[in-house]
Amino acid sequence: MNHLNIKNILIIDDEPLVREYIALEINEHYKHINIIEAEDGSIGLAKAQNQKFDVVITDLRMPNLTGNSVVKHLGRLPEKLRPDKVIVFSGFIDDTTKELSHTIKNLSFLSKPVNIELMTQYLDEVLLNHRIQAQKQKMEVQFINPFIDGVVDVFGLLCGTIPELHEKNVRQPDELVSSDISSIISMRSNLFIGSMAIGFAEETYKNLYNNMTGENISEINNINCDGAGEICNQVFGYAKSKLGQKGFEIEMAIPTISYGPGHKVKHLINGPCLSLNFTCAAGPFFLEVTVKSN
User: What are the angstrom distances between the C-alpha of 266 and each of 24, 87, 263?
Assistant: First the structure.
């Protein structure tokens, strides 16, 4: 019996005995599954529009709304409601039916009578994908937390202020952020390459610089810009030490500094970027990390 995590399955068929048979087989192979049944396509679609199902298993020929229409509507659902897998079963699967693959991802077909071994194979694929996603999320937490902790530690000691993380998102390579002063440092390890950047609005940086040095500055220039590099270097050093304890052997590097109103922050590799937006008594700032596997 499989112990991996599928929570909700929707079975749509107008024949009660077929729904019961499929539900019994699923329960024999998997633990803790919430199985919902619907006796026609219209009722099944209504349920799918109000609850996220990991898997939808649907017949094709049904009253009120056919399986073909159900699949097309499932493909139009918001991503948060769209099922991870749709399995269509019928005694009448033809080329027209198979064209439904263009309307929704992860669509599979079963002929009647239902091949239970093949059905469980499809479900195992969903389970495996869930496990991979869970591992990625765990990896992200393990990887990014040292940078968050580094920001809090370094700003507390160096700048006399404790930042708070108020937003985390992933941006694409063409979605460049702007900064008045920024510092970026390369990251090379036995497992990945990438870069870390930290950026400030002018007022935020001037306030931080005053906290660091006791000196009030009226503008950012080549004399006082080195404070951004020092902050970047210390946050990187903190994260490097913590990640080293997790098996990431990151090489030493030297940060580079850029300043100028609204300049774009460009990372050293082209890929998705995890962007962390912070606030502190000095003002808002951001830290970004982007990596790719070696």
Answer: 55, 43, 9
